Amino acid sequence: MTKETPTALPDFRNLGILLRITVAAQILALGAALAEAPASAAALHVFLGYAAHLQPPLLASLLVLFLAAPRLSTLSYPVTVAACIGIAMLVSALWQSFFLRQYPDLADGGLLRAILLAGLVAGAILIWLDWRTRRLSPALAEARLQALQARIRPHFLFNTLNSVLSLVRSDPGRAEAALENLAELYRGLLADNRQLSSLERELELARAYLDLETLRLGERLHVDWRVDNAPADARLPALVLQPLLENAVCHGIEPSPEGGRVGVDIFARDGLLNVVVRNPCAAEVVARPTPSRRGNRMALSNIRERLALHFDAEARLSAHRVGEEFVVQMVMPLLPTGAKRGDGRAQP
Fold this sequence. Notes:
By secondary structure, this protein is of the alpha+beta class. The protein folds into two domains: 123 residues, no CATH class; 182 residues, Histidine kinase-like ATPase, C-terminal domain (Heat Shock Protein 90).
């Protein structure tokens, strides 16, 4: 049975949300101008008049909501909706009072009209953002399903089991640890991963995966972990690190008889969480980059989609070749454990 998407307040500290609110307000103002003056020249004049009243209270309201976002996130949804509409109406009343005091000849309906319009516009934008969240929820579920299907590769499972069988008699302790890692990895893959995960948990799954690959590749696989300064409680979409490491192993280590090193750098800087994964470009990958990178591009595309669904315009993923290395970098807002930001964007 499909879960209903809960109603959630927009994240007023997300750049994408702020830009959408601004654009939506302009579209509403343009629609009102066209309704009042269908002729294009007259409509432009009316729209510019509306903009003089709209822009200052809109920007001031967004500033207040940005500052009040942590407090609003602790309140119930009806209370936060009322607070958002109230803020918009109060700021509009203050601006309109100032405007009428300075330019009494430009009064076009008075204070009450401006307050009511501000409340209607705020309510309409909140309804639209809530609809958008509900529309994106299936997209996030679909992206998660695609990631799950991409991760469960039968030959990886079979190769791991064969490696474990070869150790059962010679090194039973290591075989048991490998089975525990396999169970932990697939437990994470099969979980409902539509919520943000912790970096600590993602590192656990990544290490479990690499330990399993080490059974098969042996000394061909070396991993340089530089995560000592990584904030373990940082929040990020589930299953975004392990696929990057899988790509690094499959496209950078496995094709090379000599193997190579995978580098993992995770650090916080300027309020952002940075994740960098490096792997060597194997000779056959350099010679035939397009076919060999097909699975890589699919995984990167899926990760980009999930980053956008959780963090909107505030996260990015880049992938490029630097010398003889292939480098993938993810950058996203640094959110501590328990943060509401992003969790309400597209929840189940």
